[in-house]
Amino acid sequence: MDWDPRRALVGQYPDGVVDMVLDPNDPWGFACVSRQINLGVDPQRALADYETTHGPAVAWVVRVCLENYTLAVKGLLPGASDLLEDLQRAGLTLWGLAATTRQLTESASKVLSPLSALKDILISSEEHLDLSDPLFYRLALRRFAISPGHTIFVDADPEHVAVADRLGMDGIVAHDIRGLRQLLRQRGIAC
């Protein structure tokens, strides 16, 4: 998925304010609020915690960002839709792990319609688990009734791929669809 949280705020606040709110080096910043919500914390509670360190005015900007968060979802990476179709035609069953909420998944469903190719998705906020937690992957294997030795896990984050590898899956770090296709072909998958 291709997303950029700046898109939820652009045009509503000056760039400096957006930069401050989305500062990845702020340990209690937007990334922290987003992570809490993705782990199932009530958004109002996460915003209240944020307000204690950043004040009500800045918290309001984060509230606006969360309310407009579907604008942050650009869509799938170029070529992803075609790859999903090719993998289905090749006879693979596709599953998903998502670090998000059901609400965001559903509100962005038009933009992300090719993800309907996934048989099911395990969503972090519903399981109260993070993608860096091996339990999330074990739970997916059990819920989806799949064997780790017959599973390829793809993610752009090497940490997530390392967790999948440790659990016996074949992990692939992929940053673009062209490179992912090549790595899948090397594993004998016609795509």
Automatic annotation (TrEMBL):
Domain of life: Bacteria
Record protein name field: HAD family hydrolase
Organism for this UniProt entry: Bifidobacterium kimbladii
Lineage, opening ranks: Bacteria, Bacillati, Actinomycetota, Actinomycetes, Bifidobacteriales
